[in-house]
Amino acid sequence: MQESLTRHKQIFTYIYGMELFTKVATPETSFKINYTKNLAFFGSCFADNISAQFASRKFHSLTNPFGTVYNPVSMARQIKAIASGKVFGDDDVFQDTRCDKLWHSFDAHSSLSASSREECIEKLNAGSAQASEFLQKADIAFITLGTAFVYYLKDNGEPVSNCHRQDPSLFERRMIPVEEAAQALESIVADLHRIRADIRISRVTKS
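RESULT FIELD:
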């Protein structure tokens, strides 16, 4: 019995003294996030969830003004619309005649859809204006990606952010090459700096 207790004690001492995880020394950054900072989040549901954590702690934040977006091409298109001050109009929306009869935009999430063309356009322009105003004072933008697959409309070759459950035959699904993804990210960075020259940009890839 005594030998068994001694043996267990030895095992416990051995395990207790083990390094069960790898320690990684990370240098302290000179940039600090505090309650004076304005934080913008663009991208996948990872961006939605992380921004929700900041928002719940009363940080000033902007999250996906056109809704969740996963691929860099669609994200670049959205941010370019904000940077250029694009005014959305009739050509940017369509009515779903198959299901809900709502008006949608292929550039935006269904949260910006509406029962009338005018309301849908108004939501798009309001979202863009709000994002532009926030980004002019934003300190850091977080970019999170979820996929390299992009859906394109077959009739005009334009990328879409949301298919809105339309007929699959309307779209072509393509995996973009690394070079095209890199170009999209360069466009995102350039347009964010166009809005505010000294904004910091953090890119996080999350699959």
